Amino acid sequence: MARKRASEPTTITTKEAIVTSDKETKPPPLPPHRQTSNDQPIAPPKKGFIFKLSLLLIAPYFYLLLFHYQIQHDLIKPILINAGLSLAGFFLTVKLIPVASKYVLKRNLFGYDINKKGTPQGTVKVPESLGIVVAAVFMVLTIVFQFLNFAPDSNWLVEYNAALASICFMTLLGFIDDVLDVPWRVKLLLPSIAALPLLMAYAGHTTIIIPKPLVPYIGLKVLDLGFIYKIYMWFLAIFCTNCINIHAGINGLEAGQTVVIASAILIHNVMQIGASADPEYQQAHAFSVYLVQPLLATSLALLSYNWYPSSVFVGDTYTYFAGMTMAVVGILGHFSETLLIFFLAQVLNFLLSVPQLFGFRHCPRHRLPRFDPQTGLLTGTNDGTLVNFYLRMFGRKTENSLCMHLLLVQGLLASSRVWTSLSHASHNFGTRERRWPQAGVPGFLIMAPD
Asked: What's residue 199's pLDDT?
């Protein structure tokens, strides 16, 4: 899997000598460019960029929530409380990342930016695995919100705790992967284990509505998939957790795609809440909002350090955490198939990666573009990733420009689904209550025209 690190072997820094060939010798000195102090501060967050990005992505969501739809006060109040906690989590994450960077450097968890090799920036130790800060703040926010919002006898409490258990489990496994650097085949097993609490707690329906053009051929209007639907959700959790990890390789891409998808999920949820009169249907989408707002806020804080040029790397800890969180909200919010549409860029990247991931072609450790230090441009290689495919199709680009292009593509794919949802939601306003019993139906099937 493509990852932006080339960590050096752990160096023993104790006062004891290293024994080699029965002779005691001192550890060789590091080259001058590697003698970086662990106390050296990282670059400050890119606050201006994050502020502009936040306005672009979050303003439509709050406009729909507060002005466009007439949403009940009892439903808006917990969403705004959650938003306030998320805002506090943003500033807390911004403050904690520089502190955590010093500790991970002391433990030799760092990497070199391969896409800057041959330049002074390519010799700087970049702290790795800073996704652990995002995950820790996220867990604190969601637990505090649980105390403020859910009663002890709430029907949603079991699923909420199961969601937090799966997310926490996946964060732990991701950090283990960062430390041990496990083979990619093992990576497929990690989310399958972490998803078990989620699947065991799922109490939603497993039926889908058959599109009318297919009803004469199938003979059914509603099909109950039963246990097969849970298998689908299990594979969805595995895919979402790994797809962000393999759609990577340039500064800001991992955190950036999470921010774009999370924003699309929020807009989708508020449109479904506003277009429905069914309280249970509204609560399912509000449940999703409660988890996505903290994810978006903490990811924006991480992106302020991870945007080009990155002063920290997110690590597998973050990609696993973010992927599992979005899988959880899609499954328990009952729009798991719609979620897959938001991941269309990741689906394309996975399809391009299949020959290498499954051993049909040679798969190098880092499937990154080729960097030219003279021009500062990236050239696409023959590796099967969307990053390289985009460069081969549209020519060489700088790393910053390439990331912006890829996130724009991600946003366009997600917004197309959002606008489709908006038009259908307006058409079907007031009919959601009769559609709700098929809670697990795909978004593109439930909105089939009558």
From this structure: 86
Percent of residues in the chain assigned helix, strand, coil, to nearest 5: 65, 5, 30
Q: Buried (b) or exposed (e) across 162-175, using 16+ Cβ within 10 A?
A: bbbbbbbbbbbbbb
Residues 6+ apart with CB under 8 A from 392: 380
| DSSP secondary structure letter of residue 372 | E
Task: Decide: 248 and 2 in contact? Cβ < 8 Å.
Answer: yes
pLDDT score for 209? 65
Given a contact cutoff of 8 angstroms between Cβ atoms, the answer to whether 122 and 309 are in contact is: no
Regions of the chain short of the pLDDT cut 50: 1-37, 427-450
Q: How far is residue 80's CA from residue 73's CA, in Å, rounded to a whole number?
A: 10
Is residue 370 classed as helix, strand or coil in its secondary structure? Answer: strand
| 343, 240 contact by CB (below 8 A) | yes
DSSP state, residue 308: S
pTM: 0.85
pLDDT of residue 429: 43
The string of DSSP letters for 32-86 reads: GGG---TTSPPPPP-HHHHHHHHHHHHHHHHHIIIIIS---HHHHHHHHHHHHHH
| Residues 92 and 302: beta-carbon distance below 8 Å | no
